[in-house]
Each structure stands twice: as structure tokens, then as C-alpha cells.
């Protein structure tokens, strides 16, 4: 063992002198000498790596003070980098060994500025090795002399190097329990740090993916936080394309990346046009979050952030609409991934009854229209049982049940339509459901009063639908508008939506629709509310195929006119 150490030190001095000569001269004799010695130099690099990987960074520099200079000279020598790629049966072996040697120099947790500078320097050298963008004249002349165009050389070099490393990582992942074949945590950590400046190079994608899906067996995360942050940034800005399995691994292994992905989505939604569900749907699908949320752990984090946004905005209609669109996209992704649920619904909605979640999960377009009323009654019964028969202090209280209900806008938004289009006595179950949807914090007595008020308004509206002449003022009076001092009160919002629904469905109201809107929209806030209602109604009709031509045309005209006013 001592003899091996002495031999390595002697070899080190010999190759240091050789590299200095090769670096200083570019004559034909020097190039020939380089080519003659390449095989022996590669063998030296193998021995050097075997020694370096057993030491920490400080020990390495104590024993080999100029190791950084030796590796730098080797990495910048085009003949050494080109060796194997064209002249040897084992592709890119020299580049691979150089990379591992450089990785040994990296301090996993730098303690001072010198170590941090060393890490940065190593990353820069590695970037030079792998970057497909750097072509110096010597490499061009060398590759052309071998019959290869420079433009073909570097991409092939990078691709082969990446595939080799990715293959080794996959073997590490598959043979994780074979300790002799496992890649050490230090090597994994170093490789992840090396990849940081190279993330956006397209040919590096396989290596990034292999790192993300390669799980170690240590209690703590091995890969560097800056690696996760760089990958996440590239994913969010569409600078890198990874399979969904790799994105899921990224967000599962690094919670800040998932949180940043959600904040990035929120920023896009805030900066986009208000009350436009089609655009919201595009943003949500483009974020990859619904597909990733098929994993329950990711769904729970995303859903919790939506809950926080809902509480912070005091139940803003735009947030509710966004949650409903996200849930719709999530359910579509879940069905596409597997026709039967991979995970029990309890894992996605742990604080609600599975039977309620199952009935809400049904898409209204998959249920015959003749059974919509029956399904809504069943939803109302299950919700009422969960809300009013709940043990005091239970985790799944009224707000938890309401939060579940608002996810499924296909059902939540059709209650008013079903009440207005029913000629019979308004079902108490639907009145309760409507009151609960708009005022989840109300107690049983308050909700009962709201039900009485809604029933009276429904009676007036249905009676007016048989009138031969209607006026906007009469309609507003019949609906009881203006009786509340605060137009933002949930009961007032509920009645406005009843009135808007009636205006769209009752043929006699189409001619006075603009007058009705003018009387209702006396503040910018209510105007935005009406715009949101019309946009959401058209969006839902389009999905369910329940739009009547005249109602749809009117809604689109009103929506277009109102958007020009705000």
C-alpha cells in the first residue's frame, strides 16, 4: 500500500511536467507526444481518482497541493478531451474520470470563502467539459483532421458523457442495497452541484432526470438544494423538458420547489385578465401541477395552499373559481393516469366522508340530466349530515365540508338553475345546499332564515316569468334587491345570482337584460362579480353541453360589453 502511494506521487510529478510542456507548446512533435502518452495518462487518472475518492478536500490539497492545476491543464487540453471519443473502444472514459476527480475537490458544506471559491472554480471547469457551446481552434483542427466536423464533436461528447453518468445512476438506484456497487452519498451530492450551471443544456436532461429519480438510502436528502432550485426554475420557465415522473420526484423531494411552483402559478393568475376561466385553465394545465397532484402528498400541499389563499381573501369568488378549475383538471389527469383510483379518496380528502367525496367526484356530464336533481339532493343530504350532525370540535367541521363542496363547481353552480327550472315546490334539500354554499359560517337558525328568503324570491321570480310585460325595476323589486345595507352580504350575492340565472333562462327577460345589469352593477366590485358569474356560467355550459342558443348568445354579448367597461 505504501509502495502504491510512492508510485502515485512519482507519477503525479511526471504527469504534471508533461502537462506543462503540452500546455506551452503546440508543435507537431508536442501533439504527437501527447497522443503517444494518452493511454498511460488515462491509467494515471484512474489511479488518481481511486486515491482522491478516499480523502476529503482538505486532505487532497495537503497531499497534492497543485491537483487543481493538474486537472485544469488536462481539462483544457483538446487532445485529452477528445481521447476515447474517436480513438478508443470505451467512449468518453477520460472525460468521465476527469469529472469524478473534479467532484472529489468539491466541499459538500464549504466552511469559508476559499472553499466556496474552489467549488465555483470546479463548476466552471466542469461546465467547460460538458458545454456544447465552446469550440476552440485546437479542437476544431484536431477533429477536422480526424474527419469529423467540430459541430458534430461536442454534442456527441456531451451526449455520451451524460448517458454514461445516467446509466451509472440508474444502476446505483437498482442496486441500492448492494453496498459494494452503490454510489456514495458524497459523489451524488457533488454530481448534483456540478449540474447546477448545466441544467438548461438540452443534452443534460437525462442526467438531471436520473439524479431526480435516484433515491438514496440515507435519512436526509443527499442532493444539493441549489440543484433542486435550479431544476425547478428551469422547469417553471420552460427552459428544460422533463418527464412527469421526474417533476413529481423534484416536488416530493424538495418542498420549497413545490411551493414556488404554486406561487409561480398564483403570480400568473394575478397578472392575467380577471374572470377568464379559459385562460385560467390553460395556466393551470401548463403548470403541470394537476398531473403531479395525482400523487396524494403533492395534492395535499397544493390544496392547503389553495385553502390559505381562500382564507386570506375571505372566500373571493375568483379563488373559488380557480379551485374548481384546478380540481376539474386534477380529476381529468387522475382518470387519464388510471381509470380506477390509484389511491383511496381518503388520502386526497382525509377529513370528509368517502361517500360524499365519491358522489361529488362524478362529473355531471357523465350523469343523465334526468338524475341531476336526484344527485344534488343526495349531495345535500350527505353535506347536511356532515355539517349539522357533526360532533362539536371535530376536525371536519362545516368549513371543511364546504371546502370540499366548492372543489366541484359542476355541482355547486347548478343548484340555482335547477331551482329556477323546476315547476314544483322548491326542494328543501336544494334550498339548504344553496344557503350553505353561499354562507358556510351560518348557524342552523341563520341558514333556515336564508332558505325562507330564497324560497320567497324564487316564488316571486317564477310568478313574474308568467307575466306578459316585465321591467328591470319590477324584477329587482321582486327579487328583494336593496333590502340589505351591505351588498357584499352572502345573502345578497346569492339573490343576485338567482336574478342573473333567471334573466338568462327566462325568455321574457332577454329584452330587459341590459337594464337589469345597469341597476345591479352600481359598484365596480359588483360589476366584476357579474362578469365572473357570466364567464363561469358560459364555461360550465360549454363543458356540460346544456347551453340554449339564445341564452348563450345573450350571456356572451353581456360579458363582452361589461369587460369593455372595467
What does this structure look like?
- This protein has 566 residues and is mainly alpha-helical.
- Mean pLDDT is 81; it is low at 84-91, 132-148 and 175-180.
- 36% of the residues are buried.
- It has helices at 2-24, 28-52, 57-63, 67-75, 78-82, 93-105, 113-130, 137-145, 150-174, 185-195, 205-213, 225-236, 244-253, 255-271, 277-286, 289-292, 296-312, 317-337, 345-348, 354-361, 372-388, 398-407, 409-412, 415-420, 428-438, 444-464, 472-478, 490-505, 513-520, 524-544, 549-563.
- The protein has three domains: 2-253; 255-348; 349-563, no CATH class.
Mean pLDDT: 81
The largest sheet, given as strand count, sense and whether it forms a barrel, is:
none
Shape: elongated
Structural class: mainly alpha
Over all CA atoms, what is the radius of gyration?
Answer: 33 Å
Helical content (DSSP H or I, runs of 4+): 55-70%
What is this entry, summarized?
The chain is mainly α and 566 residues long. The chain has 31 helices and no strands.
Give me some keywords for this one.
566 residues, mainly alpha, 31 helices, elongated
Chain-wise SSE layout:
Blueprint: H1 2-24, H2 28-52, H3 57-63, H4 67-75, H5 78-82, H6 93-105, H7 113-130, H8 137-145, H9 150-174, H10 185-195, H11 205-213, H12 225-236, H13 244-253, H14 255-271, H15 277-286, H16 289-292, H17 296-312, H18 317-337, H19 345-348, H20 354-361, H21 372-388, H22 398-407, H23 409-412, H24 415-420, H25 428-438, H26 444-464, H27 472-478, H28 490-505, H29 513-520, H30 524-544, H31 549-563
Helix pairs in contact: 1-2, 1-4, 2-6, 4-6, 6-7, 9-11, 11-13, 12-14, 13-14, 15-18, 20-21, 21-22, 21-25, 25-26, 26-28, 27-29, 28-29, 30-31
Amino acid at each position: 500500500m505504501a509502495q502504491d502511494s510512492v508510485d502515485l506521487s512519482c507519477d503525479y510529478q511526471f504527469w504534471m511536467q508533461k502537462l506543462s510542456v503540452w500546455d506551452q507548446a503546440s508543435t507537431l512533435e508536442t501533439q504527437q507526444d501527447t497522443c503517444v502518452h494518452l493511454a498511460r495518462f488515462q491509467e494515471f487518472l484512474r489511479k488518481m481518482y481511486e486515491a482522491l475518492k478516499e480523502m476529503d478536500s482538505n486532505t487532497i490539497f495537503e497531499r497534492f497541493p497543485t491537483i487543481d492545476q493538474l486537472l485544469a491543464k488536462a481539462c483544457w487540453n483538446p487532445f485529452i478531451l477528445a481521447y476515447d471519443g474517436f480513438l478508443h473502444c470505451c467512449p468518453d472514459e477520460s472525460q468521465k474520470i476527469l469529472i469524478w476527480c473534479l467532484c472529489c475537490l468539491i466541499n459538500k458544506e464549504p466552511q469559508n470563502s476559499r472553499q466556496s471559491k474552489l467549488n465555483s472554480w470546479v463548476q466552471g471547469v466542469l461546465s467547460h467539459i460538458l458545454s456544447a457551446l465552446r469550440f476552440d481552434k485546437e479542437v476544431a483542427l484536431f477533429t477536422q483532421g480526424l474527419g469529423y466536423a467540430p459541430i458534430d464533436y461536442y454534442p456527441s461528447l456531451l451526449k455520451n458523457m451524460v448517458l454514461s453518468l445516467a446509466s451509472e445512476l440508474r444502476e446505483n438506484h437498482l442496486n441500492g442495497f448492494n453496498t459494494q456497487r452503490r454510489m456514495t452519498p458524497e459523489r451524488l451530492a457533488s454530481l448534483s452541484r456540478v449540474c447546477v450551471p448545466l441544467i438548461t443544456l438540452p443534452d443534460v436532461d437525462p442526467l438531471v432526470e436520473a439524479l431526480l429519480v435516484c433515491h438514496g438510502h440515507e435519512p436526509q436528502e443527499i442532493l444539493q438544494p441549489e440543484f433542486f432550485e435550479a431544476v425547478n426554475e428551469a422547469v417553471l420557465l420552460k427552459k428544460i423538458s422533463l418527464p412527469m415522473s421526474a417533476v413529481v420526484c423534484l416536488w416530493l423531494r424538495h418542498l420549497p420547489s413545490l411551493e414556488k411552483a404554486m406561487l409561480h402559478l398564483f403570480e400568473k393568475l394575478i397578472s392575467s385578465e380577471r374572470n377568464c376561466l379559459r385562460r385560467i385553465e390553460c395556466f393551470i394545465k401548463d403548470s403541470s401541477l394537476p398531473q403531479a397532484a395525482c400523487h396524494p402528498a403533492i395534492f395535499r400541499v397544493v390544496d392547503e395552499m389553495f385553502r390559505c389563499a381562500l382564507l386570506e381573501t375571505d372566500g373571493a369568488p375568483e379563488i373559488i373559481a380557480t379551485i374548481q378549475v384546478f380540481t376539474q383538471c386534477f380529476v381529468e389527469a387522475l382518470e387519464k393516469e388510471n381509470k380506477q383510483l390509484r389511491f383511496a379518496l381518503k388520502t386526497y380528502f382525509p377529513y370528509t366522508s368517502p361517500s360524499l367525496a365519491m358522489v361529488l367526484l362524478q362529473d355531471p356530464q357523465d350523469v343523465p340530466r334526468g338524475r341531476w336533481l336526484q344527485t344534488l339532493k343526495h349531495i345535500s343530504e350527505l353535506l347536511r349530515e356532515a355539517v349539522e350532525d357533526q360532533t362539536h370540535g371535530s376536525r371536519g367541521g362545516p368549513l371543511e365540508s364546504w371546502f370540499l363542496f366548492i372543489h366541484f363547481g359542476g355541482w355547486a353552480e347548478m343548484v340555482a338553475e335547477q331551482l329556477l327550472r323546476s315547476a314544483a315546490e322548491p326542494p328543501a334539500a336544494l334550498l339548504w345546499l344553496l344557503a350553505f354554499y353561499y354562507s358556510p359560517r351560518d348557524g342552523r337558525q341563520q341558514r333556515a332564515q336564508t332558505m325562507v328568503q330564497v324560497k320567497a324570491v324564487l316564488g316571486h321570480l317564477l310568478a313574474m316569468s308568467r307575466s306578459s310585460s316585465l321591467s328591470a325595476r319590477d324584477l329587482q323589486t321582486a327579487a328583494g334587491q336593496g333590502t340589505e345595507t351591505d351588498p357584499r352580504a352572502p345573502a345578497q350575492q346569492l339573490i343576485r345570482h338567482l336574478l342573473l340565472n333567471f334573466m338568462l333562462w327566462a325568455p321574457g327577460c332577454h329584452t330587459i337584460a341590459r337594464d337589469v345589469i345597469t341597476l345591479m352593477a352600481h359598484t365596480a366590485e359588483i360589476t366584476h362579480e357579474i362578469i365572473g358569474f357570466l364567464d363561469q356560467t358560459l364555461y360550465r355550459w360549454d363543458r356540460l353541453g346544456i347551453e340554449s342558443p339564445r341564452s348563450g348568445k345573450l350571456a356572451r354579448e353581456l360579458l363582452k360589453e361589461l369587460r369593455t367597461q372595467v
